[in-house]
Amino acid sequence: MLIVLASCYDEAARFWVENWTDGDVTLLTPEDLSKSGWRHYLGSLQDSTAVIRDQVISVEQITGVLTRLPCVFEQELLSIVETDRPYVAAEMTAFLGSWLADLSCPILNKPTPICLMGTNWRPQQWIYAASQVGMSVETHHQYISLKTEPKQAQIPSERVSVTVIGDRYIGKVDPILGNQAKKLAEFAGVELLVVHYNRPEADAHFLSADFWPDLKSSEITTAILEYFSEM
Amino acid sequence: MLTLLWGLPGDSPLYTVYQELNYLGFPTVFLDQREIAHIEISLSVGSTIAGEICTPNFKIDLNQVTGVYLRPYESRRLPIVVEAGSNSRIWQHAAAVDDALLSWVEMTSALVLNRPSAMASNNSKPYQLQKIRQAGFLVPDTLVTTDSDAVHKFWKQHGSVIYKSISSTRSKVSRLSPEHHKRLANVAWCPTQFQQYIPGQDYRVHVVGEAVFACAIASTADDYRYPGDTTDYPQLKSDILPLEIEQRCRQLASTLKLPLAGIDLRKTDDGEWYCFEVNPSPGYTFYQQETHQPISLAIAQLLTQQQPQTLGKVNSIIG
């Protein structure tokens, strides 16, 4: 059973799970953590259980997890008393961080203490890391002062994306850019990464990186399933 | 060579190190968060990193900074910012200052006590406990659950069980008692952490680089930080750990990438050492005042002795 851990508002995740007929793919949302049956015995997977589709299952039945949730947001804990939501959201996030880290199945991506989806860097950190792996970058300048109005972030008029999944990449770009994207993912210690460039040619600039693959692309969802089946 | 301290002057651990650095005569600047409205930052990040911090009291080149000790509060929670409201210009400014500095401390080659990404392991206590166990310490049996039947079984198995928060939200460690029976069904709403109760002698160990300061704590309370009355008030005294445990503490701090760490240990009557938690931003002055251990001096010396690290080392840290 493949689990997609996502927000209840993540329509792309829901669309994929509901329309995928070739395999056992199930959505897990924070609301499912407010159901009796979760047992996370630290370091003892054989005794640990999860609640999936309202059924209590052994965590050993889980064959992979795709995480699309950086943390649990209080806004989706509607069944929790409003004043308790911030605390419960923090507790659920902390629980998921430990639960995911303890699983033995492949996870895209393994959680870090800062983010359930993997290495959560700020834009400046991604730029610096990109330059370290040999990508062409444009220097990111900031001047922060109450005396001057902040500049609005410039949205590039054109961008192309490369999705790295394990040891392969998907994207219509020069192979040099594809291989650089794989290097950046390796540098960041993640198996799933979406890298954005300003154009598809080999001399393109790195723009940004994130963990949000396009789940409406069958090429990407197929690659994700292949990643889990090959691991 | 310059040390940067970031936080509030009223923060005892931070200000005590500031005094030590001044006493040592080491160039030091204190970035006072109360000056948020007057803080100006320029930061340029590409294949290199460059920047400046400017306040009414100083202007520094970030590339001159070789040591950073940070204990900031969220600037958006400063009274002047809260009063202005979340739509105000100063609120945006405070958020931007925090974001720029927090990104810079993750990338700089200076020694940082401690990088936020490393401190975050404390955001999930069971996650951190997995790392503690991997470092060779015994850890208490732990169950995080929404299932009251599982709690009853765990309780019966261990006889005595405590519960505490999973996240970094500070909570009092409490022991389960018969009065909790009726309330246990409430765990269905949110995963809750239970641990085997380990009786024994508490120790707080501060690791500062290679230096280790152990403090034995005598208290009858389940959580010595929250004494029930004056008879429970903890008695602290400086102590020396067995060499093997001392080395394990250094190793644990290193594994967690925390040059400064406050490690909570308990020694059982059988001589076994359990580790419960690692505090990545320890309020060490509470212990220093009672034991007179020179922890603040060690922190100041660590900040001043550190040379800029090589790029390879930095990369391994930000990775």
From TrEMBL, chain A:
<protein>
    <submittedName>
        <fullName>Uncharacterized protein</fullName>
    </submittedName>
</protein>
UniProtKB/TrEMBL annotation, chain B:
<dbReference type="GO" id="GO:0046872">
    <property type="term" value="F:metal ion binding"/>
</dbReference>
<dbReference type="GO" id="GO:0005737">
    <property type="term" value="C:cytoplasm"/>
</dbReference>
<protein>
    <submittedName>
        <fullName>ATP-grasp domain protein</fullName>
    </submittedName>
</protein>
<keyword id="KW-0547">Nucleotide-binding</keyword>
<dbReference type="InterPro" id="IPR011761">
    <property type="entry name" value="ATP-grasp"/>
</dbReference>
<dbReference type="GO" id="GO:0005524">
    <property type="term" value="F:ATP binding"/>
</dbReference>
<dbReference type="Pfam" id="PF02655">
    <property type="entry name" value="ATP-grasp_3"/>
</dbReference>
<dbReference type="InterPro" id="IPR003806">
    <property type="entry name" value="ATP-grasp_PylC-type"/>
</dbReference>
<feature type="domain" description="ATP-grasp">
    <location>
        <begin position="129"/>
        <end position="308"/>
    </location>
</feature>
<keyword id="KW-0067">ATP-binding</keyword>
<dbReference type="GO" id="GO:0018169">
    <property type="term" value="F:ribosomal S6-glutamic acid ligase activity"/>
</dbReference>
<dbReference type="GO" id="GO:0009432">
    <property type="term" value="P:SOS response"/>
</dbReference>
